[in-house]
Amino acid sequence: MRVLLNTKPFVLSHKTGVGYYVFNLYRELLKSGIDVVPTLDTTSRTLVSSLSKVSSRLRNLMGKWYPSFVRYIGDALISGLSEKDGNTSSFDIYHETSLDPLPEIKTKSVCNLYDLSFMNCTEFLPEDFVKNARTNVTKNVLTAKSIIVNSQFVKDETIDLMKIPEEKIEIIPLAPSSVYHRLDEPVSRPENVKRFTKKDYILYVGTIEPRKNLRTLMKAFRLIKEKYDISLIITGNLGWLYDDIISFPEKVGIKGDVVFTGYIDEGTLLYLYNHALVFVYPSLYEGFGLPPLEAMACEVPVIISNIPPLTEVAGDAALRFNPSDHEELADVLDNVISSESLRRELVQKGIRKVKEYSWEKAALSTIQTYKKALET
Question: Which of the ends of the chain has fewer CB neighbours closer than 10 A, N or C?
Answer without folding.
Answer: C
